[in-house]
Amino acid sequence: MHSLQVSVLRANHLDDVETMGKNDPYCQVSLVNDDKTKFQKTAVKKNAGKDVEWNQTLTLDDFQPTQHHLLYVDVLDDDLMADAPIGFAAIPLSQVERASGQVMKGTFDLFTPGGKQKGTVSLFLAILPAGQGNVQVPGVVEMKGLSEIDKEHQHRIKSMKRKEKAADVAMAAGVIGGLLGAKALIGGHKTEAKKEA
Question: Under the cellular component aspect of Gene Ontology, which terms does the record hold (predicted)?
C-alpha cells in the first residue's frame, strides 16, 4: 500500500467564472472521481482572480498503482449557493511512477467544463510508502506534465456547472421577487397615504 502526496502549488490564467468580483478558487484532488468524500481540498483563496497560489500539501492514502491510474483535479470557485467549476484535469499517474524517485513537479493543462484548454495547475507529486510522512525534494525541476479529459470526470464537472447555473437563476429570481414585493409594498403604502390625504 502507498500514499500519494499532492502539493498544490498554484494555478495560472484561470477562466473567470464570476459575474461580479473575482474568483474565490480552491483546488480539490482525488484518486476516484465518483465519491465526494474522497476528495482532499485546499483552502479557499478569496478574490484571487485568475492567478492563485496555495502551496498546500494534501495526502491521498490507499494509493494502489494497479487500481488508481488517474489523479482527478478540480479547481472550483467557492460560492454561497453552489461552487462553480473553473477548470479540471485528469492526470495520468504513470508519469509519476516513471519519474526519478517517483517524484514529479509539473505544470498541467486545465480544461473548462466544455472541454476547452484554459489555464494550468502546478503540482508536486510523490508516491510514498504507506505511513511515510510528506517529502520535500529540493532541486526538482518543474516540467510540462501530461493531463487529459476523462469523460466521466467531465460529466461530473458539467453536472456541477448545471447546478451552479440553477442556483444562480434561483438566487436571481429570489432577488427580483424580493424587489417586486418591496415595490408592491411601497406602492400599497403610497395608495394608503393618498386615501388618507
Answer: endoplasmic reticulum
**Of the candidates 146, 22, 1, 128, the residue with the CA atom closest to the CA atom of residue 73:** 146
C-alpha cell recorded at residue 42: 485546499
Q: Phi and psi dihedrals of 43, rounded to 5?
A: -70, 155
Average the pLDDT over 117-124 and give the result.
Answer: 98
Across 140-166, average pLDDT = 94
Q: Please give the CATH topology (third level) of the domain spanning 2-196.
A: Immunoglobulin-like (2.60.40)
The structural domains of the chain, with segments of one domain joined by +, span 2-196
Residue pair 4/63 in contact by the 8 Å Cβ criterion: yes
Least Cα distance to 99 among 140, 70, 59 occurs for 140
d(CA 134, CA 59): 8
